[in-house]
């Protein structure tokens, strides 16, 4: 992800420096309050360590980012997703239900006093059929009546947010606008609300001009590691695609009903590719 003066919040480094800032949780607390649309300030958060360690193996295009608990015992799971994820809802259900089961297994509950669980997904791409950028989902009846709000799923789709600075009013809108535009904005184009303390602190963490040499070195290491992981993932995808094409060509060759040209057109590959697969299969025997 290209970076100007400001590191993108939606990058791995940016997310950890803002949402995952354990030394200063003002931004996280205000952001969570906005995301769940609560009028009650969140005064404290406790970061849960290794909550989902080794549960899933995933590419860097979608990672479990943080889990935390507020002063009332409400549990928050936050994940950032940069790539396309058509089955992302299933993954969020997995995280939320695992958290639920963890609470139950520890015996730290009674059915009348279960802690609230908020599974929050911030997505760069669109996955839901709704047009609004912010979706809150609970267990509801077919008439839309809430049956249970102990577990809440919240989805933010950045690509659906199109408001301009003059239209922005709520903390939620300020948050999403900042996440979507900060890394493409010049310092001279600051919206006035970026001077609000919770956003100002987060933006300062992402200002490359204010980074120490140690922070610059860490940012360079994280960026390089992420780029390497993305390239490795792309290579895996290309290899899988190649294997599928080779198998498809081999199957059609085995039918002995199509010409090499027809097979190439049907699979979307070159004639040379079909001939190479044909040669490989011949060499096997």
């Amino acid at each position: 992800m290209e970076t100007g003066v400001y590191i993108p919040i939606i990058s791995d480094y940016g997310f950890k420096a803002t949402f995952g800032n354990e030394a200063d949780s003002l931004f996280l607390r205000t952001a969570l309050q906005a995301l769940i649309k609560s009028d009650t300030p969140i005064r404290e958060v406790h970061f849960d360590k290794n909550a989902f360690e080794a549960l899933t193996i995933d590419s860097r295009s979608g990672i479990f980012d943080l889990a935390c608990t507020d002063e009332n015992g409400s549990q928050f799971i936050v994940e950032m997703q940069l790539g396309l994820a058509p089955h992302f809802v299933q993954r969020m259900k997995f995280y939320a239900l695992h958290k639920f089961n963890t609470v139950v297994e520890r015996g730290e509950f009674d059915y009348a006093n279960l802690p609230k669980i908020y599974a929050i997904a911030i997505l760069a791409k669109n996955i839901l059929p709704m047009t609004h950028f912010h979706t809150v989902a609970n267990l509801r009846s077919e008439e839309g009546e809430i049956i249970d709000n102990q577990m809440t799923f919240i989805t933010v789709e950045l690509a659906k947010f199109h408001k301009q600075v003059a239209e922005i009013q709520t903390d939620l809108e300020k948050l999403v606008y900042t996440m979507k535009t900060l890394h493409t904005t010049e310092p001279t184009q600051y919206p006035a609300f970026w001077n609000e303390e919770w956003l100002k602190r987060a933006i300062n963490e992402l200002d490359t001009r204010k980074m120490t040499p140690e922070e610059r070195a860490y940012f360079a290491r994280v960026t390089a590691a992420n780029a390497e992981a993305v390239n490795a993932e792309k290579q895996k995808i290309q290899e899988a695609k190649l294997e599928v094409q080779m198998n498809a060509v081999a199957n059609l060759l085995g039918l002995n009903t199509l010409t090499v040209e027809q097979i190439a057109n049907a699979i979307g590959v070159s004639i040379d590719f079909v001939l190479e697969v044909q040669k490989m299969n011949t060499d096997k025997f």
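The chain has two domains: 12-210, 241-284. The radius of gyration is 24 Å.
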